[in-house]
Amino acid sequence: QQPVQSPQAVILREGEDAVINCSSSKALYSVHWYRQKHGEAPVFLMILLKGGEQKGHEKISASFNEKKQQSSLYLTASQLSYSGTYFCGTEDAWDTGTASKLTFGTGTRLQVTL
Amino acid sequence: DSGVTQTPKHLITATGQRVTLRCSPRSGDLSVYWYQQSLDQGLQFLIQYYNGEERAKGNILERFSAQQFPDLHSELNLSSLELGDSALYFCASSGSGTGELFFGEGSRLTVL
């Protein structure tokens, strides 16, 4: 079952913060985040494993709440280069961590303006 | 550049026809994945191969088939094409253990 992402779309001014949420109805083993710019391939951002781990990549970080089966992606002091569609991909708890088990959400379209 | 190469980049064909999409994974990656992305949709997993063997199947239609060759390149065959098959088809590869997918630039299929 496909994870649900919210919001579906968001427009930010440069320098503002944003949070993108990903929720699943199933117990999760891991959550993956990808960003896809218009007309390009998705690019890996980070993987979070069960255990409530929080990871960061410069001004982009994420958390994973295993109990709530949710993950959130935090974009701080957004830059124009952050524009794109963000996808979460989830792996169910009984899987062994292979990417073939990833189920992607429908994406959150983020636009950063001047 | 992800290191994953897909050809052709664009393809226009008619209903009922058959096409083959080709993918060369990153050097050293044994796993190849195929995804379908329709307009404004997420990424739908089709099939995975690992070192020549089918590893997992997703929502792949019976009209579609794939294989991975000894040199690890993969082909996705789409037959009896329908208008609804128009989409962007991505190939991705991964190495062992990390779970990170490296996507190619995709093949955009238009069925008229």
What does this 3D model show about the protein?
The complex is a heterodimer of chains A (114) and B (112). Helices cover 0% and strands 56% of the residues of chain A. Chain A has 114 residues and is an all-beta fold. In chain A, strands 2, 4, 5, 9, 10 and 11 form a 6-stranded mixed beta sheet that branches. Chain A has a 5-stranded antiparallel beta sheet with strand order 1-3-8-7-6, with no helix packed on it. The radius of gyration of chain A is 13 Å and the shape is globular. The mean pLDDT of chain A is 87. Chain B has 112 residues and is mostly beta strands. Helices cover 0% and strands 51% of the residues of chain B. Chain B is globular and about 40 Å long. The model of chain B has no long low-confidence stretch (mean pLDDT 93). The A-B interface holds A 2, 30, 32, 34, 40-44, 47, 87, 89, 97-107 and B 2, 31, 33, 41-45, 48, 55-56, 58, 90, 92, 94, 98-106.
In the predicted model, the low-confidence regions of chain A spanning at least 5 consecutive residues are: none
Count, helices of chain A: 0
Number of strands of chain B: 11
What structural category do the secondary elements of chain B indicate? mainly beta
Residue-averaged pLDDT of chain A:
87
Computed over alpha carbons, the radius of gyration of chain B is: 13 Å
Kindly summarize this structure in a few lines.
The complex is a heterodimer of chains A (114) and B (112). With 114 residues, chain A is an all-beta fold. In chain A, 0% of the residues lie in helices and 56% in strands.
